[in-house]
Amino acid sequence: MTISNAPLHVHAGNGPWPLHSAAASQALERRALAQVAPMTLMEAAGLAVARLALAIAPQAGRVVVWVGPGNNGGDGLVAARLLHGRGWRVQVWTTGDPAALPADAHQAWQRAQAAGVPMAPVPLGPEAQGPVGFDCSRTLHIDALLGLGLRRAPAGALAQAIAQLQAAAAGGAPVLAIDLPSGLHPDTGCALGAADAPWGGAVRATDTLSLLTLKPGLFTAQGRDHAGRVWLHRLGVPAGPADAVLSGPPAWAARPHGHHKGSHGDVAVVGGAPGMVGAAWLAASAALAAGAGRVYCSPLDPEAALLDPAHPGLMGRSAWWREPASTLETATVVCGCGGGEAVQAALPPLLAATPRLVLDADALNAIATAPALQALLQARTSSEAQTLLTPHPLEAARLLGCSTAEVQADRVAAAQALVARYGAAVVLKGSGSVIAAPGALPHINPTGNAALASAGTGDVLAGWVAGLWAQAPGASAGEVARQAVWQHGRAADLHEPAARGAPLRAEALIEVLALRALG
Ligand SMILES: NC(=O)C1=CN([C@@H]2O[C@H](COP(=O)(O)OP(=O)(O)OC[C@H]3O[C@@H](n4cnc5c(N)ncnc54)[C@H](O)[C@@H]3O)[C@@H](O)[C@H]2O)[C@@H](O)CC1
Ligand SMILES: [K+]
């Protein structure tokens, strides 16, 4: 078997990568198929799969290929035939009638049959308890059940095959998904299986080989939990225009020797209602770590101290939003961060006067319920002022007047809907944060992990982005957000292996960010 053209390993450190929706990928596939002889692309896809199988499980020698009703199954059948030819022990399980396969996949089935590949309908019912096939955790499983053609929740034989693949993965077997983990929606990253099915009824792969294009769903919502390592093989087909982008690592701006603190901009943090003052100090401290020249912290709790002994470099200011317009007009401002209901009083002057405004948490909740504040936010689009909203899914749902489930059902669309409604750039937080901005392709962030699911990490992001923005006031909200979100997640990735899944405390996150060893 001669195999050339290694797939590309897609990871957080080597982006940016163009992403293509199912519709864009299918259009590309149709154009490519029209230009080559039948089976050319499917043979190339199967070859790429077989090659990656050899690379990720070189000692396995045994493979179970799970074949679904479409051309994704055809790719699997080609790979099965090639690995059989290589001397591997191969078992193909089919979930439907091979006679009903589409033309290319049917031909792949005939070729596999002619080559003597063992193939049979997937065992169902009681005889299918536990992983079927070769009873060994080293057996490689290839998921060729469903790809781009997924339209609805897998049921029947497909759902049972997915459950078998999950069991194999849970037993430690490598699982290579072709194009997409079966059951995962290519655009949204939602697992479409029955609500009560484990892991949403979608395959959990150790590796996914995406063909022709990278699909957004691999990187957001449940995508990262299902895809494992992601590889791309373009099968020699040039990518068309992208619908979205997987963010790449940003460059650090070096500091000229002649700079002083006044060269690096001012940040003011307005937040911290009674009982939540720490949130404002955390954001302020992150802004200082990001390199802002002067950082003011203005707690909304009138009783709060105006000095944080742990951070003497931060300056407390009572009611900073009542400063003269000339002061408001020069700073980068973060508003939210534990602001409670008290934040409502601060928002009108900030929305009216500040050139760069990051709105987080309670500031977003206040805006969601106050049409007057919404009007002030939308009015900023007619000036040079720029705004960044950093909602988590519940805050996004409040701003859109829908449910959190609706936001999570299509995170990219939800972020774009917020941009359209408020005219601001948006970071929709969560696994695979989405950064959307006026006039720009949506970006999905590839860094970060569940260690960030801890108190205060959102305040740190808001402060960090403001700290970067204060130093680059000419940058757009979207640009600075993409950079900050990548770095914030990367800091958690550096922490995660050492901490073995422990949450990352917000203070520790700031220290990792401040080291700037983020790569
Ligand atoms: N045609 C070709 O030569 C090529 C095909 N490719 C592969 O083909 C795939 C796309 O092929 P298809 O468009 O056939 O799509 P799929 O292979 O994903 O399967 C679609 C089929 O499954 C059915 N289906 C979808 N959801 C179902 C559900 N929940 N329950 C039961 N049946 C369901 C559809 O009705 C359709 O018959 C790509 O993901 C990729 O793996 C690529 O390798 C490029 C080359
Ligand atoms: K698949």
From TrEMBL:
Keywords for the protein's UniProt record, in alphabetical order: ATP-binding, Isomerase, Lyase, Metal-binding, Multifunctional enzyme, NAD, NADP, Nucleotide-binding, Potassium
Cofactor dependency: K(+); Mg(2+)
GO biological process, one term: nicotinamide nucleotide metabolic process
Keyword DNA repair appears in the UniProt entry: no
Domain of life of the organism encoding this protein: Bacteria
Catalytic reaction equation(s): (6S)-NADPHX + ADP = AMP + phosphate + NADPH + H(+); (6S)-NADHX + ADP = AMP + phosphate + NADH + H(+); (6R)-NADPHX = (6S)-NADPHX; (6R)-NADHX = (6S)-NADHX
UniProt keyword NAD present: yes
Record function comment: Bifunctional enzyme that catalyzes the epimerization of the S- and R-forms of NAD(P)HX and the dehydration of the S-form of NAD(P)HX at the expense of ADP, which is converted to AMP. This allows the repair of both epimers of NAD(P)HX, a damaged form of NAD(P)H that is a result of enzymatic or heat-dependent hydration.
Cofactor info, note text: Binds 1 potassium ion per subunit.
Similarity remark: Belongs to the NnrE/AIBP family. In the N-terminal section; belongs to the NnrE/AIBP family.
CDD domains, per the entry: YXKO-related
Assembly: Homotetramer.
EC annotation from Swiss-Prot or TrEMBL: 4.2.1.136, 5.1.99.6
Record organism: Rubrivivax rivuli
Domain YjeF N-terminal: start-end pairs: 25-243
Molecular function (Gene Ontology), one example: ADP-dependent NAD(P)H-hydrate dehydratase activity
Residue ranges of every copy of the YjeF C-terminal domain listed in the record: 244-519
Pfam name, any one: YjeF_N
Name of protein: Bifunctional NAD(P)H-hydrate repair enzyme
Binding residues for (6S)-NADPHX: 71-75, 147-153, 179, 279, 336, 392, 459
